[in-house]
Amino acid sequence: MNTSRWDERAQDFGLLFLRVTGGVFLLWVHGLPKLLNISAQLQVIEDPFHLGANVTLMLAIFAEVLCPLLIIAGVLVRLACLPILAVLLIALLVVHAQWSLDEGQFGWLLLIVFTSLLIAGPGRLALNVRFAGALRYA
Predict the structure, then answer these.
(1) 138: which of 8, 20, 76, 95 fits an S-S bond (Cβ 3.0–4.6 Å)?
(2) Is the pLDDT score of 136 beyond 60?
(3) Spatial CB neighbours of 114, under 8 Å, sequence gap ≥ 6
(4) Whole domain around residue 118: which residue ranges?
(5) pLDDT band at 8 (very low <50, low <70, confident <90, very high)
(6) Going by C-beta distance under 8 Å and a sequence separation of 6 or more, which residues neighbour residue 32?
């Protein structure tokens, strides 16, 4: 096996690892608790843009449940990163602006992970590459 082919495979596995671990962490820590406890979350969710608790929670669930599932599968990865990045930036810069770097470190790390995926794309070990040539760069 020549070195460039090995490098390509390592890069694809690295992107797969980044997609799956980042997606699972966001889904497990933030998305599923919101989805499984909607009524309780409606009472405590911050609404910085005064859209209403229902709309704000549905937008958060979209970004923290559906988008990570798309990213894990490798479908529309770059597009799915955008709502996640929006929610993370709003949380870190608006809702929790008083947090120190230590307090917000998980959010900042997720921001780094999903910005990296936005830049790099899903890699070749993604469903969109296998099944839909039109979505190759999504």
Answers:
(1) 76
(2) no
(3) 22, 26, 71, 81, 84, 85, 88
(4) 3-135
(5) confident
(6) 65
